[in-house]
What we know:
Elements: E1 4-7, H1 15-21, E2 26-31, H2 33-37, H3 40-50, E3 54-58, H4 67-79, E4 84-89, H5 91-106, E5 115-116, E6 126-130, E7 142-147, E8 152-157, E9 165-168, H6 178-197, H7 203-225, H8 230-250, H9 254-265, H10 270-285, H11 290-299, H12 309-327, H13 340-352, H14 365-374
Parallel strand pairs: 1-9, 2-3, 2-4, 4-6, 5-8, 6-9
Antiparallel strand pairs: 7-8
Bound molecules: fe (ii) ion.
Residues 187, 191, 256, 270 line the site of fe (ii) ion.
Amino acid sequence: MVPEIIFGRGTLRLIGESARRVGATKVFLVSDVGVVKAGWTDKAARYLREIGLEYEVWTETTPNPKDYEVDHGRDIYLETGCDAVIGLGGGSAIDAAKAVAMLATNGGRIYDYEGVDRIARPLPPLISVPATAGAGGEVTQFTTIIDTKRRVKMIVGSKSLVPDIAIIDPLLLGTVDAVLTANTGMDALTHAIEAYVSVAATPITDVLALRAIEMISSSLRASVASRTNMEAKASMAMASLLAGIAMSNAILGAVHAMAHPLGVLLNMPHGEANAILLPHVMRFNLIACKERFAEIAEAMGERTADLSTRDAAEKAIEAIERLCLDIGVKQHLSEFGLQEQHIQELSRVAAEDVSLITNPRDATVEQIAEIYRSAL
Ligand SMILES: [Fe+2]
């Protein structure tokens, strides 16, 4: 499952034409505060105006979007008579845009659609324009929204949530700060690695995931180091896209299952939670897929020729830890306020997360708790 993809510097200007092409007359433009501040939302609105389209800008989403936010967005969409949705922003804005579009034509509450393939009616035309490189929502069949009553991150998965068009303009990445560039880049790397070792991986997703790992290993440091390195930004934007397609089809694993409850409990940035957990989960998974880890090490530029498969596999974990150190991501969950007393409940929630189904090694609640402890 893949949307139509428009990729390249300056392609944001095609947003009006693209919206018209999918039949929009009035666009519900979902964006976030950071992207508004950077000036991209105004620019997009101007392109819509220039082509004669009406629009309504909605920026009430927050990182880790909540159920009541998307309900409110859906109300405004319907009240203002919009007939298409554009998500322009980070992963959260794109997830919120998908949820609003889904609720607008399917009715009910977001909980009614938790799980896979429960969306019956077609969505309004949907366009995604990512302003960070990593979350992958621009191409995936998923949206993740917090159920505030049950305090869980719900995953809704359906072919209908794959946007009609994804516009990927690396210029937008030039206004993202180093911390967010690092965190979102690690989210993309986690997508690629979890897709590559997923029990649902296929030869098609393998090619995409491995190439994404190579590109992230060679360009994430440079992208974090400089806002103006457009070559590195373009490489990260493409890697995010490839990793997104790979994980939308091969699904995820224990890193995401364990990161989701951290987003609810500590409101931890998704990429940062993944970055901290990734090496710990890989150590746990190693006995299930050491050959694949050895291939990951090679894709990350490690010398593996004279090594045993086991030693080569460990090189992949070391390479990831070195990358995290170089780009300055935090290394301990305790830095975000996680305490031993939280671990049992987190582990119970993580064990129920659908992402765990495709993890290469089965994990009990106790084993998940041990992994959290190792990352404390
Ligand atoms: Fe992710």
